[in-house]
Design a protein that fits this description.
The protein is an alpha/beta fold. It has 17 helices and 13 strands. The structure holds pyridoxal-5'-phosphate and zinc ion (ZN). The site of zinc ion has 8 residues, from loops.
Length: 413
């Protein structure tokens, strides 16, 4: 792997060999993949990427695996759609929606899982596992089935029932834990220290996290190799936001962008679990853990592993963070569905509601080219909107009944 230099500590900068490791032995800081950008720049081209598959694996030169697509259900290269009706509703100019609901298991977690499991195969693991708020469980169970790997996924027992069904169907082990995600995560850290498993968000985390960069790569490619002015990204552990930021920088580092990107990065959280947004609003560097209470369960991480790095990315780029109520989340889901025909899960509602808030506050501006990341599908969180939507009318099968239910002027247009 000529293009990967090794693992590097994000705190003290010490370097390590490529291995199933995730913390620095010296300072206990988190490790991340380090690349040889000069080596990559000498081979990577826009044409080479365009000739690749319409998946995350077209960017294999910037991903930390020996063999691309070792585990592949076709994640990535999702549509980037111009959202003029949404923009008009929010008083904004150029807004684009990156629609990651169309991935194999309908969330962006397919991207990170394909990278983590491809790496797990390289390391020779036979069992893969994860701690999940739902979407990662779907993705790991599906990809493990595809790769013939044994899987254990650990989730909070109070998860949306759709997310349990859409995980268990793949036949792996699903362990529902009587506790919140942070309890699940603590148990998983213990299990990861006991068994030789590939835990995608523990000992595989440096590789897992890299998968999120593909969202930035695709965005730039789909905009004709230009970075946007502003991105709005949902925050759970903070990894996605951090890596989208890193991704634009890497494209420039390897010579794929004509101009240096100046992407303002903003984050979206639900008020019921907003440790990063709260630190931002309080002008604090300390992210205080919270006990989550929100319908946005996929974002309900009270003690975010990458919270500090996410906060730093927002600060250093001049972005902002919003914390929105559950009511605003539902409004956000409906607004996106009604203006653009995209049915997002609660995390998407958080993102649209945060975009609205940040636009009102003047953080997101009308002259900017804005990209919002819609990371999961509404069909997994139907209960969130079910009380708010219903048939327009329920009638007997006769023309008379139809005319009774609707005003003639309304139908005859
Ligand atoms: C996991 C998840 C996120 C955020 O992921 P982090 O990298 O942990 O911040 C966003 N949206 C959805 C739908 C998710 O499942
Ligand atoms: Zn260190």
């Amino acid at each position: 792997m000529a293009h990967v230099a090794g693992l590097r500590c994000r705190e003290c900068g010490r370097e390590y060999e490529v291995a199933a490791a995730f913390t620095c032995e010296w300072c206990f800081g988190p490790l991340e993949v380090a690349y040889d950008y000069d080596a990559i720049a000498s081979t990577i081209t826009r044409e080479r990427i365009a000739a690749g598959p319409p998946t995350i694996w077209r960017y294999q030169d910037l991903l930390p695996v020996e063999r691309a697509a070792a585990v592949d259900l076709g994640a990535g290269f999702s549509p980037l759609v111009r959202a003029d009706r949404l923009a008009a509703e929010l008083g904004l100019g150029e807004v684009w929606v990156k629609n990651d609901t169309v991935n194999p298991t309908n969330s962006f977690k397919d991207r990170v899982t394909e990278v983590a499991l491809s790496k797990a195969l390289e390391f020779g693991f036979k069992t893969v596992a994860c701690a999940s708020t739902g979407n990662l469980a779907n993705a790991v169970a599906a990809h493990a089935a595809r790769a013939g790997l044994r899987s254990f996924v650990f989730v909070p027992a109070n998860l949306e029932s759709a997310k349990i069904v859409t995980t268990a169907v793949y036949g792996g082990n699903v362990v529902a834990i009587d506790g919140n995600y942070d309890d699940v995560n603590r148990l998983c850290a213990e299990i990861a220290g006991t068994y030789r498993w590939a835990f995608v968000n523990v000992n595989m985390r440096p590789y897992y996290a890299e998968g999120s960069k593909t969202l930035a790569f695709e965005t730039a490619e789909q905009l004709g190799w230009e970075a946007p002015d502003h991105v709005v990204v949902p925050v759970a552990s903070g990894s996605l936001l951090t890596k989208i930021h890193k991704g634009f920088g890497e494209l420039h580092a390897v010579g794929l962008l004509d101009r240096e990107p100046r992407v303002r990065v903003s984050g979206a959280q639900a008020a019921g679990c907003s440790p990063v947004a709260t630190a931002w609003i309080d002008h604090s560097d300390t992210i205080r853990p919270v006990k989550p209470s929100t319908i946005a369960k996929s974002l309900a991480i009270g003690n975010p592993a990458d919270g500090y790095f996410a906060l730093d990315a927002v600060r250093s780029t001049g972005g902002g963070l919003a914390a929105v109520s559950d009511e605003e989340v539902v409004d956000g889901i409906r607004l996106l569905a009604q203006t653009e025909g995209i049915f997002a899960e609660t995390a998407g509602g958080v993102t649209i509601a945060s975009l609205r808030r940040l636009a009102e506050e003047g953080v997101v501006r009308a002259h900017e080219r804005v990209v919002v990341y819609i990371t999961g599908i509404g069909l997994k969180t139907v209960d969130a909107v079910a009380p708010h939507v219903a048939p327009t009318a329920t009638i007997t099968p006769s023309l008379d009944a139809f005319h009774e239910a609707f005003d003639r002027d309304d139908i005859d247009q």
